[in-house]
Amino acid sequence: MMKNxxxxxxxxxxxxxxxxxxxQDTLSITLENVKYVYxxxxxxxxxxxxxxxMAYMDVAPTAKNNGRSVMLFHGKNxxxxxxxxxxxxxxxxxYRVIVPDQIGFGKSSKAFIHYSFHxxxxxxxxxxxxxxxxxxxVLGHSMGGMLAVRFALxxxxxxxxxxxxxxxxxxxxRKFVPYINTEQQYKTELKSTAESIKKYYxxxxxxxxxxxxxxxxxxxxxxxxxxxxxxxxxxxxxxxTMIYEQPVVHEFVNIKVPTVLFxxxxxxxxxxxxxxxxSEQAKHGQYKVLGKETAAKIPGAKLIxxxxxxxxxxxxxxxxxxxxxxxxx
Length: 329
What we know:
The chain is α/β, with parallel strands linked by helices. It is built from twelve helices and eight strands. Strands 1-2-4-3-5-6-7-8 form an eight-stranded mixed sheet, with helices on both faces.
């Protein structure tokens, strides 16, 4: 009897401990409980009969204003929160820095709409218009690189420079990645756990794991505990489809603005990599090759390569990346 009592008490405290841990780790799907370093504002948008909010940071120069602006486009699995060191460095050099969370990401609305790079680009132009910014350099990382390319193609007169940090879309994934529809991808997204997310980040983003990267996992995994996670997962699947179905690689030749590529040579990112056999994976996503091929396609493009660096140079080799960025912005 006494043994059963202690087991009951132990079970009770175990449940309470797990519940507290989950409560601490649970994040809303609009990241209200994730603090960005700079104040977050919202641009109101109406699309497909829905009222949406586009979150952004507008950071003033902390040094003498040089009269120039930079807009930062985040990758698919991130939001404005992972740009902090880049924002600080740019503002310290006199730049105004505008950092949107794209619709469907970060603190912005998780809308059930048709996602397109054309529409996202138009909303970013609308953001610049609302802020009275006539021209900006655009730095896009990963999926943000695909968006930055589309923005530069649509609005060359508003793009001072196109800066691409390990952009995805350097290949046409439709040519070698098997097609899966949004519903199939949604079911895959629903299976995400803290463990699977960390494993993916370790294998896909960095050449060596550092403790500070755990914060990225905490945010990405935190939303999986939310009761609204199915909405997050659905939007993630919809934007996966956007990336797959809307390549920009065939239009690199049409870019008319000064372009710089910042490439971590150890990056092997492929959208839909898990759908490929190991032998097929080895044929694609080789950024040490793709960087040079892409620079050759873009008129007048400059290529800067980083050794021993993977998918996110601004986090893996921050000092080296920021030095290169400041010299070429």
